[in-house]
Amino acid sequence: MLLTIEKVSILKGVAIFANIPDHVLAAIAGIVDMVDLTAGETFIEEGTIGNCMYIVIEGTVRVHSQGKTIITLGAGKSVGELAVLDPEPRSASVTAVTDTRLFRIDKPLFDEVMADRPEIAQGVIRALCERIREQGRLMADSGTPNT
């Protein structure tokens, strides 16, 4: 079990929360659940309705769709952010590559914290923009048409 200050430190290292004051991150730290996965375990299924996001604390995860790897993420990276903004079907699956420890943040609790702190929403939007740009660069590098 991590102390709030330890959770805040971990959250501060994640792009979507990096510019958010520690006292605001303490509110987010209060709603995170710790999830431990074994290598090969899928924790987000493509096509299912999402209601949470995850932050990789330890280990590596693979984001994939239709058998193709989209991106591999390690400690300090977030995945599933769209689900806390707009609970639509997941656009990809995510599987632990190694034994992995995650923070899970559920949408209803996140909505409550975000309602009081708009800077959290701004951080999520910035991270999503960065992720879209990164995926665009990866597609351009691989020669995949960007249509």
CATH topology group: Jelly Rolls
Shape: globular
- Show unreliable segments: none
Instruction: Please outline the major beta sheet.
Output: 4 strands, antiparallel
Helix content percent band? 25-40%
What's the CATH class, please? Mainly Beta
Number of helices: 5
Strand order of the largest sheet: 1-8-3-6
The pLDDT mean sits at: 89
SSE run = HHEEEEEEHEEHH
> CATH H-level name... which superfamily?
Jelly Rolls
Rounded to an integer in angstroms, the radius of gyration calculated over CA atoms is 15 Å
Structural class: alpha+beta
Give the total of beta strands. Answer: 8
CATH architecture field: Sandwich
Q: How do the strands and helices of this protein lay out in sequence?
A:
Elements: H1 4-12, H2 22-29, E1 33-37, E2 42-44, E3 52-58, E4 61-65, E5 68-73, E6 78-79, H3 82-85, E7 93-96, E8 100-106, H4 107-116, H5 118-142
Helix pairs in contact: 1-2, 4-5
Could you name the key traits of this structure?
single chain; 147 residues; alpha+beta; Jelly Rolls; four-stranded antiparallel sheet; 8 strands; 27% strand
Q: What does this 3D model show about the protein?
A:
This protein is α+β, with helices and mostly antiparallel strands and 147 residues long. It has one domain: Jelly Rolls, CATH 2.60.120.10. It is built from five helices and eight strands. The chain has helices spanning 4-12, 22-29, 82-85, 107-116, 118-142, and strands at 33-37, 42-44, 52-58, 61-65, 68-73, 78-79, 93-96, 100-106. The chain has a four-stranded antiparallel sheet with strand order 1-8-3-6. A hairpin with a 2-residue loop joins strand 4 and strand 5. The model has no long low-confidence stretch (mean pLDDT 89).
